[in-house]
Design a protein that fits this description.
alpha/beta; six-stranded parallel β-sheet; 6 helices; 38% helix
Length: 141
């Protein structure tokens, strides 16, 4: 498994989410995972089921599916683990069929042990995305 981590910068969180979607698409598609559906809805500014359906449809065209804990954890392919805790991350990384894993990590946690244990590469947002913080979450719907 190739492991990557992007440490959280609250002012750039929306850029990090867009970066992660592009990363998944470049890898040929994969799974965007979060703890709960509520967390997922909050990340994408989703208020209704029809908005969620539209988001999932649009992402499916890019080869990306959304997954949250109630549906299980991703076990293979390319995965973005978005703002989950270390315990859930340990559960995901124990599977050997993951090809690539990108962790969007909460900045308040200490990720050094996970980085060292998994040989993770630290990524950072491109400079152009750092120059402007978005006014609202990215619209993928």
């Amino acid at each position: 498994m190739n492991a990557y981590i992007l440490l959280d910068e609250p002012d750039l969180r929306n850029h990090a989410m867009s970066f992660a979607m592009d990363w998944l698409e470049e890898k040929g598609g994969g799974t965007y995972f979060s703890e709960t559906k509520d967390n997922m809805c909050g990340m994408f500014d989703i208020l209704t089921e029809s908005q969620m359906d539209k988001l999932q449809s649009n992402l499916a065209e890019r080869g990306i599916r959304l997954l949250w804990r109630r549906k299980g954890v991703p076990t293979r392919g390319n995965v973005v683990a978005a703002y989950i805790g270390p315990e859930r991350l340990a559960e995901i990384t124990k599977y050997s069929k993951l090809d690539n894993l990108l962790v969007l990590a909460w900045g308040k946690e200490d990720w050094s042990d996970w980085i060292e244990a998994n040989g993770a590469t630290r990524l950072s947002l491109p400079e152009k995305e750092r120059k402007t913080a978005p006014v609202r979450p990215p619209r993928h719907i």
